[in-house]
Amino acid sequence: MVVSEGKVWAKQRKAFSPGFQFAFLKDLVPTFAGKTQLLINRFAEAADTGKVLHFHTEAVLLTVDVICQVGLSVNFGYLTSKEPPKIFYLFNELLTNTAELARAPHTAWMRFLPWNYLRSRNIQNRFDSILIRVIQHRLTETQQADPLATGPRDILGLAIKTAKDAKAEEGGGALDLEDVLAQVKTFLFAGHDTTASTAAFTVYEISRNPDVEAKVLEEVDRVCGGKPPSPDDLNRGLKYLGCVVKESLRLWPPGGTARIAPPGATLQGYDIGGRPIYLPHLPIHRDPDYWGPDAGEFKPERWLDETYVAKLHPCCYMPFSKGARDCIGQTFALMEVKTLLAMLYMNYTFKYACVEPEAQAYRITSYPKNHVPVTVHRRSRQK
Ligand code: HEM
């Protein structure tokens, strides 16, 4: 979906949209909570020994596990195995390889050098073969015209249904396995990297701001009462935590906006028609002209000031981009991050364990350069 255009994109977006509404996503909250509990268990050893953990690395394990579970209905067991399964390393290799080859447009030809090409193909093939096994297993399980009627209502089910409907419109024929694979891969990648980065930068900011941490702990204890958050807690109850995540996405937006300019478009007199345009979000999100003199400071309270928010430029905050092609997974991501943070802060607090402050590093999306090293500290709930 990310790379498709025109009518093909519109059909895909329409087909996947119902799966990303709150009404559907609320049923995923127990999965988010169950996976977070596994992460809480993983952190126990670090809390007992004082060992430093890289929070970002742990958050990636969680978000990959979640997206595979709700996307494919497969439990790869990332959070329970001592050594993460093979597919985890392939996710990483694939992202790094794609980013390395895409980084410098003037060296794009390098991807066609035989050794680079073969290396990329090899990683792709190993990754695809795991997914193709999952897709084929589902296809043999759900032979019916409507796979959602028989199989689980996950991203794979939606992708198979979309591909079947497209074939039926064309008058029949074999299902396009490549298309299903491409859709599933889009969601697996778009659905984990940015979410892990957001969770990690949020923990980093909370660890540097004791007043924010105190408010988060008070709210989590009061609203959730020691239990995993309900959909209603996520939607309305955890208001301050919502502002904390929003502010973290302002200072550390993991994605940008990429578009192809329409034919004939100009920018300050330059012909940009048909060219790729990339809009980085970070400089807009930190511009004092939009946000005021405290633009660079982490202040979740700014989002509680209705007068201030009402005066903001409509496009000065866009972590999920804007318009028809904005992020389809934004409610999913916010529910997942809030569940994770609420449950973690019920049990632990985190201290940043590095003298160098965090910075953004870039692959395809951005992530914390030091991976947020932290020590983990047990806490008990305030009554
Ligand atoms: C905090 C987490 C996330 C952030 C910051 C984020 C950010 C973005 C941004 C900025 C775009 C627009 C890219 C562009 O215009 O070039 C986008 C698109 C997209 N995102 Fe996300 N995303 C997040 C989580 C997710 C999740 C959890 C999923 C799926 C489960 C997802 C799926 C997608 C898809 C499929 C698109 C393409 C939409 C289209 O072209 O119609 N994202 N995301």
TrEMBL record:
InterPro entries: Cyt_P450 (IPR001128), Cyt_P450_CS (IPR017972), Cyt_P450_E_grp-I (IPR002401), Cyt_P450_sf (IPR036396), Cytochrome_P450_monoxygenase (IPR050121). Keywords: Heme, Iron, Metal-binding, Monooxygenase, Oxidoreductase. Its cofactor is heme. It holds the Pfam family p450. Gene3D superfamilies: Cytochrome P450. It comes from the Eukaryota. Belongs to the cytochrome P450 family. PANTHER family: CYTOCHROME P450, CYTOCHROME P450 12A4, MITOCHONDRIAL-RELATED. This is Cytochrome P450. It comes from Dunaliella salina (Green alga).
